[in-house]
Every structure is written in C-alpha cells, then in structure tokens.
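Q: Predict the bound structure with flavin-adenine dinucleotide.
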Amino acid sequence: MKRRKFLKGTGIVLGATAIGGLAGLNVINSKISENLDSSLLLKESNKWSNWSGGQVCEPSSFFIPKNEQDLINKLKTTSNKFRVVGGGHSFSPVVPTNDILSSLKNLNKIISIDKNAKEVTVQSGIPLSDLTPQLHKNGLAFLNQGDIDKQTLGGAVSTSTHGTGKDLQSFAGFVKKFKLIIANGEILNCSSEENSEIFYGGTVALGSLGIVTEYTVQLTDTYKLEEKVYPADLNETLDNFWNLVEENRNFEIFPFFYSDQVVVKTLNKTSKNITKVEQPFLSDDFLLALGLTLSGDSGSRTDKVQNLISGLIDSTSKINDSYKIYPSVRNVKFNEMEYQIPKEKGIACVREILKTGQKLKVPIFFPLEIRVVKQDDFWMSPFYKRDVMSISVHQFADKEYNKYFPIFHEIFKRYEGRPHWGKLSYYDREGIKKLYPKYDDFVKLRNELDPKKRFSNDYINKIFG
Ligand SMILES: Cc1cc2nc3c(=O)[nH]c(=O)nc-3n(C[C@H](O)[C@H](O)[C@H](O)COP(=O)(O)OP(=O)(O)OC[C@H]3O[C@@H](n4cnc5c(N)ncnc54)[C@H](O)[C@@H]3O)c2cc1C
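A: Predicted complex:
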C-alpha cells in the first residue's frame, strides 16, 4: 500500500476511535460473523427472515421436500398457498407468506453434464457457490455472474439476477430448458421448442407460475479473469462511460453521493497466471463498517465521512478463475433498490440521482452501483428486448431507507426504469403493466397455470393481480 494511503487510513481509524466509533464496529463485526443457514429458516422462532432482515414472515408451516416426487405429492394432497425460498437473498417481499414456505435445499444435485454442448442439467435448489466449483472441475463455467454467489440457481434465474457486461445477459439468459411443477402437481418441460409460451413467460416469474425443479443451462469453457479496481474522477468517468464499457468485458462503477471520486471495477479475460490474492489494506467491508460508524446514528456526518473514506480506496488487481473472481464478500448488511434504465438514458439518470441525493443531503454512505446488461426475450425480465444500464441505491440494513428510496423511485420511473425483482421498488400493478409489453400475456398464462393463485403472496398479488 502507498505511504500516503497508509497515513490517511491510520488517521481515520484513530479518528474513529476518538469518536468512540470502534465500539460500534464490534457490533457490526458480530453481525458479520453470523453464519446464516442458506434456507434462512429461523426454526426456533418459527419465523423466516431474508438476508438483510428487512423481510420477515411467520409461515403456517415449513416444507423441505426430500426430492421432486415429495414436492409433487405435497402439491397434490394439499390446497394451501405455497411459496418457495431460495437463498433468501432478495430484498423485495417476493418470499414472505403466512401459509406454506418451502425450501428446495435438498434439490441440489447435478443431473448431467454435456461437455460437447457445454450444458449442465441441474436441480434448482443448488447454491451457485456449490455449483460453480463442480462446473470448474468439468472444464465449464458461467458466462457471467453477479456480485455474490450465495443465491440458489432457482432464485437467481427467477429474478433475472445479473452481473455486468454489454454482451452478457442475466442468469435467465443462460437457461435452455426447465422443468416446472404447476399447482395441480403436473410436470411441464419447457424450452424454446416445447411449451414455448411457458418458457418465455415462466423463466423470470418469481415462482408465481409454479416451482422449477430443474434447469438446463448454457455454459462456456473455463476462463480466467483479471480484476482491476481503481479510483477515478467521477465526471470524467461518467463522460467516458460507454467507451469504457466497450473496452472492458465487465465494467462497473461505484459513485458516491458526496465525492468527486468514483470507484471503477473492470474484469477482462486473461491467459496470465493466477496471482496471489492481494487484499487491500482496508477492505470494502471494513470501509463500509467504518463509514456506518463514523456517519453517526442519524447519518448527519455522512457527506464528510464519505468524502474522506472514498479517498482511501486502493488500486488493486488480481487474476483468478472466473468463478472465484466474480463473487465479493458482502458481510455488512444492507437494503437495496435497483432499476434497469434504457441504456441511452442511463447517464442522465445517474446524474439526476446523485444531484437529488446531494440536494436532499441523504444520509446514505453506500456508493451507487452502475452496471450494464444485455437484453433477452423473457416476458417479465427487466431486460426484455432492452439493453440497459442498471442503477442500484443501497442503505445500511439498520438505517431508514423508506424516506429516500421512494424519492429515487420517482426519478427512476421518469426514466422508464424497470425494477430488479429481487430488490426494493415501489410500483403497483398499473406501473408494472406500462413497463412490460407482454404483461397481459403473462397474467393470462398465470391464470391458466395457477387459477387458484396458490403461488401468490401479497407482493405477487400487488404486481400481477
Ligand atoms: C449481498 C447481495 C448481493 C446481491 N448481488 C446481486 C447482483 O450482483 N446482481 C443481481 O442481479 N442481484 C443481486 N442480488 C439479489 C439476488 O441475486 C436476488 O434477489 C436473487 O433472487 C436471490 O436468490 P435467492 O436464491 O436468494 O432467491 P430468493 O430471494 O430466496 O427468492 C427469489 C425469488 O425466486 C423464487 N424462487 C426461488 N427458487 C425457485 C424455484 N426453484 N422455482 C420457482 N421460483 C423460485 C422465490 O419464490 C422468489 O420469488 C444480491 C443480493 C444480496 C443480498
């Protein structure tokens, strides 16, 4: 680490101690060390909570099928409402139910691998972090991944979870076939050739058409990525954004509300040797925890602290297999909203979000996250026939977001932003219908496949009726 940064870092850590802030950090660190079960079923209290703690429910019962037949039997012998939870990493209320909540944690096996076609057929309940090392051993990898790999494949596909890259689609875009169990327990095999309406309508459907037990997914040969993270001037980076997107396989930026600096992250394929992982002196997680502590309970010092801490970001680089490079460690809990904006309107939207946040003096220490995603053909995908810029706003999990997120929502709405289904947003049914050309077809399909709305909850009813 450079001497200048070390001195600056030491000064800030000492400053934090002086304010009594590091006592707060201990609390945060104990939260960090919580090792949550991937199904997040809080059995002792009979309650379920999502990753951030922002969504909680008390289901009438939990059901963890041993296998696919067990699931089918349950659907055939009950008439209850039924929600499926994957890794519980959605911020939006897609999971909560007061009826049956089911985890597919036992449906976690690879069924077959076709090395020639570079395809895997795999059960939907497998966490991505369990799947990717097994794919790697077989010489295969996902074309792209998001920021973490704790999601299940079913959850990632059903919400159109994505990474960044102008030529790269979301997880839904990799799906070739899936097996859907509908409300009466019937199995439907869906692909672009078989049950094609259900394939295009049901790939991104938040579990509202039925439960997917298996996916066949397009992969690629294993590859290595070189990651570079560096600070840059915010305005210059925004002006040059689309050139940088063109020049890099995966490109994203993290602008702060109160800093002229932006953090840039690029990933590019490489044949160079794997490097020893170089940890920055102050990790992302440490800086976030420090920011939370120093900003004060009300967040009143956020602007000064953010300006100071954004200056501490180190330039780092590392090379590793793709599946080890994509996921970051995200231990500091937060809530998040994210909207997909038509690419040509993206930069204007980012500038307006930043300007509005500054004007309102929002106590949000977290940077925005700006990515790009290639369009797909899935009816309810936020990327349906639209290349987008993806813009996220975060807030620490124990800080208020409801005062500010709705204000940003109004801006995103003016820019025709489609919400990330797994993240917070504020649209009602009419708002969603305007954004999705195939909305009516989707609702019709849902009425056909699930006439009694077994797979609904309050949120699903709010957006799909
Ligand atoms: C720290 C963190 C980082 C994140 N990073 C990213 C990112 O980089 N990119 C991004 O796009 N998103 C990101 N997300 C959001 C996350 O990827 C999505 O919310 C994703 O859906 C979570 O997957 P899950 O397995 O936890 O699903 P859950 O949240 O448990 O469920 C999501 C939805 O999928 C449905 N579902 C799950 N399994 C099935 C199934 N087998 N059949 C039918 N429906 C099913 C559920 O009913 C629910 O409606 C992040 C979230 C967190 C907490």
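A: Residues 1-39 have pLDDT under 50 and may be disordered.
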